[in-house]
Amino acid sequence: MTDSAFLAPGEYIDSDHSAVREFARRHAKGNTDLERAVSLYYAVRDGIRYNPFLDFSTDKPFRASDTLAAGEGFCVGKAALLAACARAVGIPARVGFADVKNHLTTPRLAEHMGGSDLFVYHGFTEFWLEGKWVKATPAFNLELCRKFRVMPLEFDGRHDSIFHPFDADDRRHMEYVRERGSHADVPVEEIRRVFRESYPGLYKLGKDAAKEAFSP
């Protein structure tokens, strides 16, 4: 890891924002980068509620500080926040992306997504720890996992934390179908372009749609 961009503030991974720095300071527990990264992972995973029903025509869903201020966000915003917190305490971090097929998508969410169960540009965080990049996926908070019987993702700082292929009832859950690479900052315009093409009905929804889409 030689790129200083993975420690510098970005437009969306705004690790120099005062609220982000304070959140990171409070939650980065431990004596090593690995211990602090693990502590930050759980703080973001469970402290920020997962909500994919946001207005993606604005910058707020993609920016770390705005996700923190809202107390909720979708996978990309939460990944950006986790990366920003890591950088704020001196841990190199970046964001990575993949397309994933969610075999347990609720009917209402699938309807909003034009009948698709493919989530394009799913976002996660990558930390530079003990000489290698390690993936961490803070998207689904513990409360959401318990509600839908999805296995919560744990993170130990040494092994990739990515979606489980099966849920707690052994039903097929997440399938990774395409890697989209890693970035020093969130490639918002590219994500917007792909979102517009993939989900014309979802692209601009209000926050109130979340309860309806995730209800049984």
Q: What descriptors fit this protein?
A:
single chain, 8 helices, 6 strands, disordered C terminus
In short:
This protein is an alpha+beta fold and 216 residues long. The protein has eight helices and six strands, in the order H-H-E-H-E-H-E-H-E-E-H-E-H-H.
Q: Topology of this protein?
A:
Elements: H1 18-27, H2 33-47, E1 49-50, H3 64-70, E2 72-73, H4 75-88, E3 93-102, H5 107-112, E4 118-129, E5 132-136, H6 142-148, E6 174-183, H7 188-198, H8 209-214
Parallel strand pairs: 1-2
Antiparallel strand pairs: 3-4, 3-6, 4-5
Helix pairs in contact: 1-4, 2-4, 3-4
Tell me what you see in this structure.
This protein has helices at residues 18-27, 33-47, 64-70, 75-88, 107-112, 142-148, 188-198, 209-214, and strands at 49-50, 72-73, 93-102, 118-129, 132-136, 174-183. The chain is an alpha+beta fold. The strands form two sheets. The chain has a four-stranded antiparallel β-sheet with strand order 5-4-3-6. A two-stranded parallel sheet has the order 1-2. Helix 1 (18-27) crosses helix 4 (75-88) and helix 3 crosses helix 4 (75-88). The longest helix has 15 residues, at 33-47. The protein is globular. The N and C termini lie far apart (45 Å).
